[in-house]
Amino acid sequence: MPLFLLIAYLVLMDNGAVSQTGTFLHELMHDGRHLLGVPCH
Question: Does 32 or 20 have the greater pLDDT score?
């Protein structure tokens, strides 16, 4: 269950707070949110 919550946070809520070392993870999750229809702008 905690792993699911972490993944849900990364996909739905993360706006770069987790990926401070680079932008790859942020951009990957950002594009994924657009594919899922989650508003992020």
Answer: 32
